[in-house]
Amino acid sequence: MRSMLDRLKWPADAGCTAVPYWVFNNQEVYDLEQEKIYNGPTWNFLAADAELPEKGSFKSTYIGDTPVVVTRGQDDEIYAWVNRCAHRGAEICRERHGKSEDGAYTCVYHQWAYDAKGDLHGVPFQRGLAGKGGMPKDFDKKKHGLRKVRVVNYHGAIFGTFSDDTPDIEEYMGDDVSYHMRRLLNKPIEILGTTRQYIKGNWKFYAENTKDPYHASLLHLFHATFGLYRSSQQGESIVNNKVHCLIWVKSSEEKKSALDDVKKENLRTMQQGNYALADESLLAGQQEFEDGHSLDILSMFPSLVLQQIQNTLAFRQILPKGKDEFELVWTYFGYKDDTEELRNIRLKQSNLIGPAGLISMEDGESTELCQKAIVRDGEYTSVIEMDGKEPEGAKHLVTEGMIRSMWQGYREMMGF
Ligand code: FES
Ligand SMILES: [Fe+2]
Q1: Given 57, 75, 148, 381, which residue has the most CB atoms within 10 angstroms?
Q2: Which residues form a coiled coil (predicted)?
């Protein structure tokens, strides 16, 4: 019987074109990811600043599986801290969103009270009661604040990091990814709503999925059937700093003939017959970006996907909940200056995405299909060779180059 350490050796000839399935189903790997990736030099998406509209607003979320609260202080600055009481470890903030009217965050257990920055202000019975009890004389509240998270507000998207070594946010993302983030956050946004889903799969199966333009016309039949996306469309797959990437696609001029093209391209669609939408207004959109992109999806490793699909705009936050489960939080947004018509288009098109989205529910399902099947086969590997063996982007959409690149970066971060 080989030891666990031997078994966790990346197969010698695998490089980034074959990934051993143990990375998706091993508790030690999961724990090491929390240390090396989520507690390491990475920027993790925490919130849109539009989710913290007023002084006193807060949101509780996670970096990896560490609970974190993001706040807007009385000075209008954004802060974040680990949601773990400095006294005996209880979760302090138990709501997902809200507003602290007095700016205080009080642990329910013994009511230690903190401010928006995470500094400790109040300790009940610090001086005891009627001369009895109390904390030692040298107890110093300044030394017992919450574990703080370094934050940055990048054009309205708030990111946090535990590490002092994390580079500047633009340097971290790279030129293309940061350009496209600014493209989507080019003016003040308005939050339209949030959905959440739990997916019974390892978070990296989903990370692969979002770097995989190859599957889009095959898995998502709605996409293909109604001409929203075809692999032959003009588009690009771009890698930045190995682990971040961008997929863009230009809108098709010939939506009407799309179904015929798809039939030629895709035998499965042909077998399923002709479909028509009972309400075609679902797909009635507006060309709102000068570059003509109908799809623009950026993945910022490890926790954020920021998307434009037609006129739907959303942050997708990936929150691992164990080696074989993660939560996916969708935050839908528009712009503050949207016309009512455009806002309604966004709301209607939001049916395309989210947990039951017409073109995104299969992503959750395929993640679960992978997790189910690899559970006892950790020593086998996948095959990631579409469009060659190099870890790089492509001027087209039929590639797994961005996935190869992510695994190369992952191996370096993890020391595999
Ligand atoms: S654990 Fe929070 S006050 Fe005791
Ligand atoms: Fe997909």
Answers
A1: 57
A2: none
